[in-house]
């Protein structure tokens, strides 16, 4: 048995998954951890990572590395997504990750991956526990800086994948700047999302999808809110089904109230409270797309996502190495 780790560093959060890989290739989760670091702070406006954002990320990753050492992790893969793809000073960030991750696996450092690869990794993780007969699936990974869409089946057949520069942090920083947002800001945000959804419909065979799967923090938080949970419970959230009419009631409130009011709800992470309104606008646009293009009126919410896809990629690499 080999203990491995996956790290996903996005625009808003950095997350860790440690798993055991058995000799037959099956995987058992050991622990999952998430911290809000807002690495993408100001990237959309300034084109570079803020020094304080890099420092927040360094502190969080240092804690992750300490946890990996305690758990005796021997292999690690870290991917960095939208914020770092857009930053002019990204090498400073990558040098920092190399220094820290090298303590676990010599030569390891964060990798910039394309939006399309990000989508495929998210798809692999998100559909892992779903019945293949529910496919084809459209997996939507709604992040801070970008949103990935991929249509495919559980057998690995990918019918199409795309990444759009539309995430909860980007929408908030670019458009919904007042708290709570004005009606004008909400209309502009709605139009922005609608433009991106038209691109998705043009780029992907959305009409072939039978099940739409939402993953990452905005979607999972919406599930917790829909269920009226008193605390965030990943087991209660995983593979829940949300119907669009009820979901629109929740998103309608989220996008119009202040961040301080959102923070009062125990299932909304304090570091997500100021941007989930932007996420709510994005989700409303995705619902419009699903209804129009595929006749679908529900989301399945998955707690599994790109982290699980990264672990799967480590397993595939290990087994390929062993086969050699």
Structure explained in plain terms:
Helices cover 46% and strands 21% of the residues. The chain is of the alpha/beta class and 324 residues long. It starts with a strand and ends with a helix. The strands form 2 sheets. A 6-stranded mixed sheet has the order 8-7-6-9-11-10, sandwiched between helices. Strands 3-2-1-4-5 form a 5-stranded mixed sheet, sandwiched between helices. The longest helix has 21 residues. It is globular. It is built from 13 helices and 11 strands. It comes from Corynebacterium massiliense DSM 45435. InterPro entries: ATPase_NBD, GppA/Ppx_hydrolase, Ppx_GppA_N. This is Guanosine-5'-triphosphate,3'-diphosphate pyrophosphatase. It is an enzyme of class 3 (hydrolase). One of its GO terms (molecular function) is guanosine-5'-triphosphate,3'-diphosphate diphosphatase activity.
What is the strand tally? 11
Radius of gyration: 19 Å
Structural class label = alpha/beta
Q: CA-to-CA gap between the ends?
A: 19 Å
State the major sheet: 6 strands, mixed
- The spatial strand order of the largest sheet comes to 8-7-6-9-11-10
Total number of helical segments? 13
Instruction: Determine the strand fraction and express it as a percent band.
Output: 15-25%
Helix content percent band: 40-55%
Overall 3D form:
globular
Average pLDDT confidence is 92
Sketch the topology as an H/E string, one letter per element: EEEHHEHHEHEEEHHEHHEHHHEH
GO molecular function: guanosine-5'-triphosphate,3'-diphosphate diphosphatase activity
Keywords: Hydrolase
EC number: 3.6.1.40
Domain Ppx/GppA phosphatase N-terminal: 23-292
């Amino acid at each position: 048995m080999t203990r491995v780790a996956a790290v996903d560093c996005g625009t808003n959060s950095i997350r860790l998954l440690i798993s055991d890989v058995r000799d037959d290739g099956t995987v058992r989760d050991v622990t999952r951890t998430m911290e809000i670091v807002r690495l993408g702070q100001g990237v959309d406006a300034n084109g570079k990572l803020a020094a304080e954002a890099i420092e927040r990320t360094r502190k969080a990753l240092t804690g992750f590395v300490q946890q990996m050492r305690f758990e005796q992790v021997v292999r690690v893969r870290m991917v960095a997504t939208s914020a770092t793809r857009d930053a002019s000073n990204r090498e400073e960030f990558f040098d920092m990750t190399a220094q820290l991750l090298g303590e676990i696996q010599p030569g390891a450092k964060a990798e910039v991956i394309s939006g399309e690869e990000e989508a495929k990794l998210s798809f692999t993780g998100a559909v892992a526990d779903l019945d293949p007969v529910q496919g084809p699936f459209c997996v939507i990974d709604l992040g801070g800086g970008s949103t990935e869409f991929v249509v495919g089946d559980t057998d690995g057949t990918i019918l199409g994948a795309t990444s759009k520069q539309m995430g909860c942090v980007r929408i908030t920083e670019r458009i919904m700047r007042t708290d709570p947002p004005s009606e004008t800001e909400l209309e502009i945000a709605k139009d922005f999302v609608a433009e991106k959804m038209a691109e998705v419909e043009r780029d992907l065979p959305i009409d072939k999808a039978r099940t739409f799967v939402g993953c990452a923090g905005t979607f999972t938080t919406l599930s917790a809110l829909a269920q009226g949970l008193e605390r965030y419970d990943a087991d209660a959230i995983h593979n829940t089904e949300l119907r669009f009419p009820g979901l629109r009631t929740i998103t309608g409130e989220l996008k119009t109230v202040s961040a301080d009011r959102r923070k009062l709800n125990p299932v909304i992470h304090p570091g997500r409270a100021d941007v989930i309104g932007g996420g709510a606008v994005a989700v409303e646009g995705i619902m419009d797309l699903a209804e129009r293009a595929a006749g679908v009126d529900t989301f399945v919410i998955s707690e599994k996502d790109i982290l699980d896809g990264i672990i799967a990629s480590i397993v595939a690499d290990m087994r390929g190495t062993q086969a050699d």
